[in-house]
Amino acid sequence: MNRRTFLKTVPALAVMAGTTSTSAQDLQPITLVKPQKDGGKSVLAALQERKTTRDISEKQLPPQVLSNLLWAAFGVNREKASFGKPGRTAASASNSQEIDLYVALPEGVYLYEAVPHCLKPVVTGDFRRRSGRRSAAKAPVNIFYVVDRTRYDEGPGQPDRNIGNPEVQKSYYYVATGLIASNVYLFAASQGLAAHFHNCDKQNTAKEFKLRPEQSVLFSQTVGYPA
Amino acid sequence: MNRRTFLKTVPALAVMAGTTSTSAQDLQPITLVKPQKDGGKSVLAALQERKTTRDISEKQLPPQVLSNLLWAAFGVNREKASFGKPGRTAASASNSQEIDLYVALPEGVYLYEAVPHCLKPVVTGDFRRRSGRRSAAKAPVNIFYVVDRTRYDEGPGQPDRNIGNPEVQKSYYYVATGLIASNVYLFAASQGLAAHFHNCDKQNTAKEFKLRPEQSVLFSQTVGYPA
Prior knowledge:
homodimer; 227 residues; alpha+beta; NADH Oxidase; two-stranded antiparallel sheet; 6 helices
């Protein structure tokens, strides 16, 4: 399918939405259903199925699957862990929890808030294609990995004397991204879903998501059913 | 326990070995038993158990568990994937497979070779404490994450035009480390093992492992039974 054919087959709203964003006021918060904590393949069986799948169908994820996916990625699995914060399914340096998941659905972009396990509106419009892959433009979910470097400002409780060094921070937040992305890959493999971690349009996405200067878009991961 | 007490309680050989390395000729390759591809908790149940555990017992891992651990981390799960290479349990940029696992066991350090699924001797001696944590010094396994930047030299088949950029490479190899480390965390959680991903002594370790200039030690992960 060439680009012209592709554009013709996409509804006009979806084509426009990537360029004409409106405020998040039009979007309603999404309360995610309670995530399931068991079911699907074993870790070893999921590792055997783990792979990158680029061809992903347009079929939407049922609410329970979306909830499970986000909890698996970086949900709360312990009320208290270290440094006065809850524990998450993925580790982070000194439990800084520096990565935020910006979740692009067809109608808009939401921030995943792990403690209440809900999606908070960020911007209305279809930004799924900002994940940079044409194949991702119509997949049901694109997760954008965004670092917030202010999470490293910990004050006296911070045990890592190098955490103020930007090069050290870089090593931490990219590793943290990989730790979450692997949870997504294994959850997908355990449930027969398809996943694809990849580059994205970092500069434009940061503007469109109205990020602060201390935040940066790092990578993106597309999830859905295999096409 | 202070450092003096700690040193007194460790056998003399183990104390010496971190500083007096001998050649790898004394070590024999280890053929790993065939990894199991199922068993243990589901992915969702393992995510609920995922946490960092710093207190790890001295108890050694049985051969089957060591084999399963390394396969889970970054083993081959498909004979052919992309760019003429096999598929691995963790993704990497353009399937560059740029991360090597250097596995420190009590008697020496080995390189994990994924295709034959074996451990190749690197250096004799006990380098487990180079993972930088006293608690890790006697844990049965410390995995050192080492990047080999020559894996990005792909020639005409390389589809990523930015892969020669050192900053881009950095983002790739730290994410790749996180992807593998998460596999280790989830495998550990699925089997009741303890795992701890952390900094390590990068400079000395690189010398002791006789790495080439294109290689760097990034992080380390300790695995064993909970103490």
